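Lab meeting, item 3. Inverse folding demo.
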C-alpha cells in the first residue's frame, strides 16, 4: 500500500499573550491554581484585526512557503474549526482566495468540536491512499479561538491559533497507517455551543474531564485490538504520546489513566514509577504549546506535535508517536505517526519558539478591552495595518463591506 501522511507542518499563534499570573491576580485566585493545577503559564490573545480566517491563512502560507509548494498544486483544502465566522460560506473558501489556491481543488470545512482536525486528516489520508484519481497534495488547516467569557471557570484555558498540515504520498515528515486507528464515540453533553451563542456551555464539575477519559479508554482498547498490542506493551510500542490538551495537565490526567489501564495488574507503587518515567520522557516534550498558548481546540493535538518536533529535534527521527484526539460530543481516535529520517529542514523552519518569544505581553485591562470589543464596524488605516503586520502575521481582518468580511 502507498504510504501517505504529513510532508510538512506549520503553526501560527497571535502576537499577544496574557500571563496566567495576571489573570489569577485580577480574580483573586492563587496563581498556583492556574500554573500548577491546570499547568498553564500564558494565554494567547487574539487582537480584533485577526480571526480564524486570517490565522488559518497565516499558518497555511507558512507551510506552503517552508515546503516550497506551489498553491496551484493543492488539490484538496480543508479547514477544521469549531469557531467559524459564517454559517454558510466555508472558512476554507476565504483561505483559498488569500492563498491563491487554484479552482481545480476540493474546498470545504469540517466542524466536529476539537476532533474536526483529525476527521480531516483521516479522511484525506484514506482518500489519498485508496482512490486512483486522488489528490497529490492536500492542505489541512485547523484554526480556532477558544473563548469562555469573563469570570467563567474555563477562562484560564482560553487560547487561539492555527496549525497547517501538508499531506502527500511518500510523505517527508511522517506516515500514518489509519487501518490501525482506535475509535470511540458516544452521544454526550460535555461541552457544547448552541447556534447563536458566543461562548460554550461546559458540563458541571469534572464531567467533561471524565467524558474525555472514558473516550480515551474506549479508543485505546480499539487501537490495541486493531494493532494486536497486548496489555502492558503499549509503552514499549510508542516512543512518544501526545494528547488533546484543553489545558496542559489534561495530558497528565490522560497519561495517568493510560498507565492505570495498561498496568492494572501491577501494584500502585509500580504504576506510579512507570507513570513518572514515561510521562517525563514520552509526554512532557509535547506540552510546550498548551502551556504557552492555551487551548486551540482543533489544532491543540497538532500544536503538541509541533512542540515535540522542536523540543526533540535530535531524537525524533524514525520514531512512533501515539496521538489521542478528542472532540466533545463526543468522538475520539487514537492513532500512530511513524516519523521519517532527515527531518532537520522541516523542524528548523517551524520557528514556533521564536514566535512565542516575539509575542508582546499585555495587561489584564488590555485583554478585557480586546475581548469586549465587537469586530462589527472595525476599520483600520493603511498605517495601522502596516504596523500590525510582521514576519508571521501576513494576513489581517480589516472589517466588513456589504456584510462581507475583508482581509488584507
Ligand atoms: N495550587 C495548586 N493547585 C490548585 C490550587 C492551588 N492553589 N487550587 C486548585 N488547584 C488544582 C485543583 O486541585 C485541580 O487539580 P486536579 O484536577 O488535579 O485535582 C486544578 O487545580 C483545577 O482546579 P479545579 O478543579 O477546582 O478547577 P475548576 O473547577 O475551576 O475548573 C476545569 C477546571 C473544569 C478544567 C475548567 O477550567 C473548565 O471548565 N475548562 C473548560 C472545559 C475543559 O477544558 N474540559 C476538559 C475536557 S473537554 C475537552 O477536552 C474538549 C475541549 O477542548 C474543551
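The presenter then showed the designed sequence:
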Amino acid at each position: 500500500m502507498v504510504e501517505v501522511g504529513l510532508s510538512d507542518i506549520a503553526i501560527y499563534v497571535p502576537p499577544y499573550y496574557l500571563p496566567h499570573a495576571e489573570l489569577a491576580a485580577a480574580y483573586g485566585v492563587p496563581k498556583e491554581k492556574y500554573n500548577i493545577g491546570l499547568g498553564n503559564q500564558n494565554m494567547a490573545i487574539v487582537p480584533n484585526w485577526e480571526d480564524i480566517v486570517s490565522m488559518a491563512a497565516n499558518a497555511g502560507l507558512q507551510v506552503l512557503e517552508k515546503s516550497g509548494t506551489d498553491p496551484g498544486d493543492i488539490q484538496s483544502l480543508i479547514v477544521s474549526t469549531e469557531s467559524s465566522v459564517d454559517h454558510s460560506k466555508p472558512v476554507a473558501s476565504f483561505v483559498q482566495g488569500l492563498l491563491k489556491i487554484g479552482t481545480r481543488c476540493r474546498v470545504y470545512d469540517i466542524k466536529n468540536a476539537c476532533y474536526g482536525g483529525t476527521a480531516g486528516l483521516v479522511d484525506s489520508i484514506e482518500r489519498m491512499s485508496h482512490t486512483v484519481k486522488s489528490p497529490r497534495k492536500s492542505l489541512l488547516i485547523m484554526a480556532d479561538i477558544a473563548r469562555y467569557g469573563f469570570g467563567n471557570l474555563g477562562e484560564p484555558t482560553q487560547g487561539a491559533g492555527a496549525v497547517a498540515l501538508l499531506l502527500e504520498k511518500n510523505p517527508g515528515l511522517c506516515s500514518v497507517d489509519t487501518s490501525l486507528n482506535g475509535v470511540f464515540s458516544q452521544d454526550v453533553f460535555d461541552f457544547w455551543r448552541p447556534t447563536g451563542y458566543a461562548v460554550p456551555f461546559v458540563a458541571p464539575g469534572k464531567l467533561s474531564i471524565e467524558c474525555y477519559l472514558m473516550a480515551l479508554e474506549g479508543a485505546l482498547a480499539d487501537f490495541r485490538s486493531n494493532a494486536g498490542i497486548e496489555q502492558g506493551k503499549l509503552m514499549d510500542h510508542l516512543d512518544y504520546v501526545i494528547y488533546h490538551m484543553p489545558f496542559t495537565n489534561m495530558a497528565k490526567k490522560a497519561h495517568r489513566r493510560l498507565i492505570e489501564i495498561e498496568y492494572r495488574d501491577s501494584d500502585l507503587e509500580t504504576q506510579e514509577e512507570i507513570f513518572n518515567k514515561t510521562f517525563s520522557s514520552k509526554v512532557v516534550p509535547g506540552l510546550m504549546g498548551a502551556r504557552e498558548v492555551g487551548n486551540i481546540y482543533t489544532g491543540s493535538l497538532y500544536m503538541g506535535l509541533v512542540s515535540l518536533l522542536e523540543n526533540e529535534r535530535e531524537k525524533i527521527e524514525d520514531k512512533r508517536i501515539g496521538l489521542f484526539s478528542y472532540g466533545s460530543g463526543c468522538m475520539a481516535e487514537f492513532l500512530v505517526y511513524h516519523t521519517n529520517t532527515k527531518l532537520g529542514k522541516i523542524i528548523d523552519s517551524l520557528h514556533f519558539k521564536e514566535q512565542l518569544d516575539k509575542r508582546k505581553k499585555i495587561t489584564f485591562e488590555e485583554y478585557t478591552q480586546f475581548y469586549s470589543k465587537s469586530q462589527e464596524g472595525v476599520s483600520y488605516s493603511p498605517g495601522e495595518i502596516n504596523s500590525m503586520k510582521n514576519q508571521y502575521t501576513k494576513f489581517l481582518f480589516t472589517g466588513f463591506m456589504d456584510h462581507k468580511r475583508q482581509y488584507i
